[in-house]
Amino acid sequence: MKILAFRVALATIGLAQFGDVYSTAQALTVKGIEEANPVAAWLQGSPDLWLAVKITLGCAAILAAWKFPGKRVHVYHAVAAIALAKVYMIVIVNNLLHFV
Description:
Layout: H1 2-27, H2 38-44, H3 47-67, H4 75-97
């Protein structure tokens, strides 16, 4: 069960990269909204670079979920991946709330 949860969390993190790109771009169109993460703000200065980084991260997470070789995963790794996936969902929902 843990391996399935880990793989689903990794795939969710990968898909969330694409949702993050869209939701952040939409939120930044609202007057007064700025990127809080300085690294992301710097990357967004070059949209091609930002998109390339997000696509790479997204595809790497999805590939890792698909090709994960183990039959077992440590519970801490599964919990960390699930927590990160949930944080990404919160970030995306927060971004979407700025323009809905």
